[in-house]
Design a protein that fits this description.
By secondary structure, this protein is mostly helical. The chain has 16 helices and four strands. Pfam families: Cyt-b5, FA_desaturase.
């Protein structure tokens, strides 16, 4: 044999999941929404099903049509069944209170204000392209928040995706499908390393010791100071991956919306009288600023808190992996696209954002009931947590690397000295 040791074979991947007490066989089932079901193979997916499909009668019919599978109880990961029951109780209560009903008037007014602000920024581009670019970047960030609402079906099944395509595709030039594919996984496996795509900030930044190992020394030294500016450059990388996704997946309707986006802005800038230089300055400034704006507000609620295991319940991952800041403020809600009440949003992602403040007391009570953290803080405290998390993570990893290098050098010196001694003895 060429190899002394034979590699241990990986156990076969489970082909079942547990939903509402039934262990169902999904070996031959293909989820219409993509591969998100793969994240729950071999474990309880009840809460995830309720969050993503609790409103959809067709999904319930599909679930009941799946065959059951006999599984050894020893093969089912240990999870707190009381967490699952609590989530079911809360979801039922919130639906009975009407908190999942769409709020089209509030969302439409919000959206119209953003559209008017975009038009005003284009009109100002010839005279102050940088300032107008920051204005349109803020508007594009707000478009990101609005499409977020559509992507979570807050307008109901009939209009939500059209709402999302308008703000993400036409006004922002992005891909609604790419966003849903990535963001649904984020909700399903919040702050789980290797499964939550939003944690893929390496090799540039890291908030935890595991991912810090993939970041070079120079970045660890500066990441607390370069994080925000770098978001402006990072968004251009996303621009490429998003467009590639739409082409590879043959989402030609999304490609058409992207092309229409560029055509509309080029026409608007031309009508406003902007030169090519002013137009490019306006657009690139806006694109970079929206990356800073979106990344900053998202980071406040997620990046600096703990990572959670893949087998964590929905209740655990929500309370451990998210925080609230200025949660009682409606102004901060609209400023951040309601990312300031992230605990509530992760508890009920399809609930209209304007209703989330009404369930804060319920979420806090559930956290206390099960001894889980419910963290709410001020805006400044959240900023400090995020930036200090970068600084401390970088500092600790650099110290570990320095200690390892010192140890390696000491070993080398001792080895050389030992060799000299042995040589003298031989002589």
């Amino acid at each position: 044999m060429c190899n002394a040791a034979v590699e241990k074979k990986q156990p076969p991947r489970p082909s079942w999941t547990k939903i509402h007490g039934r262990v169902v066989d999904v070996a031959n089932f293909r989820h219409p929404g993509g591969n998100i079901l793969d994240l729950f193979l071999g474990m309880d997916a009840t809460s995830a099903f309720e969050q993503f499909h609790g409103h959809h009668k067709g999904a319930w019919k599909m679930l009941h049509s799946l065959p059951e599978k006999v599984v050894d109880q020893a093969d089912i990961p240990t999870q707190n069944d009381e967490h699952v029951a609590e989530m079911t109780r809360l979801m039922t209560s919130w639906r009975e209170r009407g908190l999942f009903k769409p709020r089209p008037v509030a969302s439409a007014v919000y959206g119209i204000c953003v559209v008017l602000a975009i038009i005003a920024s284009v009109a100002c581009a010839p005279y102050a392209p940088v300032i107008a670019g920051i204005a349109v970047g803020t508007c594009w960030a707000q478009c990101g928040f609005l499409q977020h609402m559509g992507g979570h079906r807050e307008w109901g099944r009939k209009w939500s995706f059209a709402f999302q395509h308008f703000f993400e595709g036409l006004l922002k030039g992005g891909s609604a499908s790419w966003w849903r594919n990535r963001h649904n996984k984020h909700h399903a496996k919040t702050n789980v390393i290797g499964e939550d795509g939003d944690l893929r900030t390496t090799p540039f930044f890291a908030w935890d010791p595991t991912l810090a190992k993939k970041v070079p020394d120079w970045s660890l030294r500066t990441q607390a100071f370069t994080f925000l500016p770098a978001l402006g450059a990072y968004v251009f990388i996303f621009a490429f991956t998003v467009r590639k996704y739409s082409v590879v997946k043959r989402l030609w309707h999304e490609v058409a919306l992207m092309l229409a986006h560029y055509a509309i802005f080029a026409w608007g800038l031309h009508v406003a009288g902007a030169t090519l230089k002013a137009g490019l300055t306006f657009y690139c400034t806006g694109y970079a600023w929206q990356g800073i704006y979106l990344g900053f507000f998202f980071g406040l609620s997620h990046f600096a808190v703990e990572r959670v295991p893949s087998t964590a319940t929905w209740l655990e991952s929500t309370m451990i992996g998210t925080i609230d800041w200025s949660g009682s403020s409606a102004f901060c809600g609209y400023l951040s696209g309601f990312l300031n009440i992230q605990i509530e949003h992760h508890m009920a992602p399809q609930m209209p954002m304007e209703n989330l403040r009404q369930i804060r007391a319920d979420c806090k009570a559930s956290a206390e009931k099960f001894g889980l953290p419910y963290r709410e803080m001020s805006f400044l405290a959240a900023v400090k947590l995020m930036i200090n998390g970068l600084y401390q993570t970088g500092k600790e990893e650099l110290k570990l690397r320095s200690d390892r290098r010192k140890y390696s050098r000491a070993q080398a010196y001792l080895g050389a000295a030992s060799a000299v001694v042995e040589t003298l003895k031989a002589d």
